[in-house]
Amino acid sequence: MRPKPLCALVTALATVATTAVAGVPPAAARHQDGGYSAEVRRASYGVPHITARNFASLGFGVGHVQAEDNICVIAEKVVTVNAERSRYFGAASPTDANVRSDLFHRKAIDDRTAERLLQGPRDGVHSPSNEVRDQIRGFVAGYNSYLRRTGAANLTDPACRGKPWVRPLTELDMWRTSWASMVRASSRAVLDGIVAAAPPTATGPAAVLDAPGAAAVVAARDGAPAGVGSNAYGLGARATTHGGGMVLANPHFPWEGAERFYRMHLKVPGRYDVEGAALVGDPIIEIGHNRTLAWSHTVSTARRFVWHRLALVPGDPTSYYVDGQARKMTTRTVTVQVPAPGGGTVPVSRTFHDTHFGPVVVVPGTFDWTATAAYAITDVNATNNRAFDGWLEMGRAKTVRELKRVLDRHQFLPWVNVIAADARGEALYADHSVVPRVTDELAAACIPAPFQPLYASSGQAVLDGSRSVCALGRDRDAVVPGILGPANLPIRFRADYVTNSNDSHWLANPEAPLEGFPRIIGNERTERSLRTRLGVEQVRERLAGTDGLPGRGYTTSRLWQTVFGNRAYGGELLRDDLVALCAAHPTATASDGTTVDLRGACAALKGWDLRVDLDSRGAHLFTEFALAGGVRFADAFDAADPVRTPSRLNTADPRVLTALADAVRKLAGIPLDARLGDIQTEPRGDRRVPIHGGRAEAGVFNMIISPLAPGVGYPKVVHGSSFVMAVELGRDGPSGRQILTYSQSSNPNSPWYADQTRLYSGKGWDTIKYTEAQIKADPNLRTYRVGEGRRH
């Protein structure tokens, strides 16, 4: 929706009645200083620059503009955390994904999980500070003000226009969505296993429900949430031409739904002034910069929960031993409403079982609930109520050294690393995320022998739950029990650079590897992904001046060119060997036994420019080859040369030609030498926007994931590069480039639905707009005010 002119909005300022918010004391729901008022300056591409006199009014402005642009996204998030997905979006069966989600969130509601997070001293560590509570309260008021003025029936977004699930928010809604975000890589990741957990009966084993999500977590090589990732550089004085710091932010997140980013600039004069992005529905900048500090996040490899193997009491599978004493599990039966075939709804109930460690979880075939053993998890993010305060204080830090003090004090990052740099030219990498306290000593003493290989290979710790000495305990410097303190977490300051592309902490800078940290954080001295290796190679080549760009060192324009150079590192290493192999073997047998002619594939690969640009021909063929398992190396990984090894195609492995044959078969009906921009697109209205970028499996840094539609191509991006920022911190303030690849609004009738997507297609950018001069220079700047008057 286009913002109204300033005079119209001032006239529309509403006087509203105070309403009690469920789960929040009425006094906390009232504004004490005469109402809310925020100035909104919409710059190019609809990016709001919001200024307010306090954090409550700042939150009001954020809630209002996010509702203008993405009300359906926020409303659906609230439906999810209030356990109403089945009711409003349907369910194919009592075990449908919506039903499982509702049961999980209904239990959290019945347990009063969000309410408990608000208890305690309001110091930003034990419970959220007053400033953060003000932001949440203001956000709710701003969203509700927009919805009240517009009305659900008059929304311009067809996704939720007139829908019964679009309703005013409460503060409790927002705290529930915050909690759900905190447990994204832990309890939510295994919610299927929590819902499925049931004890065996006297006559036999429990009826096992499927738990596909939990099984995927167990199979994952690390603790990163499925479907997200990122690249980031922190560049110090030795890596930049101006001698100050620079940061590349390149998170890879979903292009649709609850995890979309939203660009904004937030300011409370003298107290907070930060530009960047946050997930839609969050009131604070989570990736961005202030005048002298910039930062980004990448998804960490660390695990967020631990398993406890329970020794059950004979004849009573809901009781377990601790130090020889029996303890009884607690139970809670929750009920959700599911649409009935003939209309209306029917109740679906499930009984959950909890231990003093946490919920019992079942993963069929791996973590089963038998007559003698069961498995519970401890989720260390389930009590993480520190995140918004942590990000607020990050935005106030002036240097990376101050940033470290914020990380140490709050220990709030739920499942991400931080990569940062400051105007003095110092860079920082840290995995200061919330990690269970599994030290090497605890792992050696308390992980039973059958589970030691699982811990070594993936970082999943299965502790002996029958001994109290195997509890997580507390580090002296940890802000809460059960997590690793700062002294046990990897951190590195550098004057040249730090980087991360979702491998572990080990090679944040290959010149100074981070080693000797608990395995639960991530692996060390092991092979890195092609994307990680390319990320490091790009910086090394830039500093050496061997990447084909002018000079040495980074400017923001050269950093932008690096990100969108669209190199496919797997192709650089393996393409020539692959072409020679298929030339020598013009036919091969696919996995289904079909004989496949490879001559066209050889020609397409030979003509490929080794990039994933719009004009690149044959890039999709190499991608499908990589996805089919064709990237197999002949040489071994060398921990002494981890960036450049391994590097040669194993042409003697028959699976290589099989993968190429499978790729050709999969691409039937699509020219093997098609231009990438003709077959990889993103729909925007009745137009298709060509999209560059590609898969990490092919070694692409600018990651774009678009599922293949047989015979058509890649017609929809599901996730990949999202908010991209290249910011330079100089004496005159920050400058640089930024873009939100999928655009600011999810509403197809918004003027900001497709503009940045088209800009991304052409490798364009919007400029950093932080200083008053930068903002006022924007030719599309429009100013209006949002607020509500004094309550009576």
TrEMBL record:
Pfam families: Penicil_amidase
Keywords: Hydrolase, Signal, Zymogen
Secretion signal, residue range per the UniProt entry: 1-22
GO molecular function: hydrolase activity, acting on carbon-nitrogen (but not peptide) bonds, in linear amides
Keyword Transmembrane helix: no
Domain of life (superkingdom): Bacteria
One of the protein's GO biological processes: antibiotic biosynthetic process
Family matches, as SUPFAM superfamilies: N-terminal nucleophile aminohydrolases (Ntn hydrolases) (SSF56235)
Annotated family: Belongs to the peptidase S45 family.
Annotated protein name in UniProt: Acyl-homoserine-lactone acylase
Origin species: Micromonospora echinofusca
